[in-house]
From TrEMBL:
This is Sarcosine oxidase, delta subunit family. GO terms for biological process: tetrahydrofolate metabolic process. One of its GO terms (molecular function) is sarcosine oxidase activity. The lineage of its organism: Bacteria, Pseudomonadati, Pseudomonadota, Alphaproteobacteria, Rhodobacterales. It comes from Pelagimonas phthalicica. Residues 88-109 are annotated as: Disordered.
Amino acid sequence: MLILECPYCGVKAEETELTAGGEAHLKRYGPGSSDDEFEGYLFTRENPMGVHFERWRHSNGCGKWFHAARSTTTLEVFGTYSAQTTEPPQEIKDKISARHPGWSWRDQS
Ligand SMILES: [Zn+2]
């Protein structure tokens, strides 16, 4: 079972206490963007075998949204952090790089 620590209240919550919110760090497109950009924002998602960044809500706890970095193959959790960030904290990126040599954060902005 997936267990994530809520970065706000510190509770180690089981997956049943959380609500999945899909991929994190999406670049949003709005008025003035091209149809292709908006279509990509609405429908295109990564589905990696490995490191993935996701949005989760502590729905049966404090109710706040946060981000989690984890491996989709091993379910190893590299860390959780505030949803009000545009990229993972350096500490989490370092932890991922240590476990997955050659991995690097992709700039989505
Ligand atoms: Zn919480």
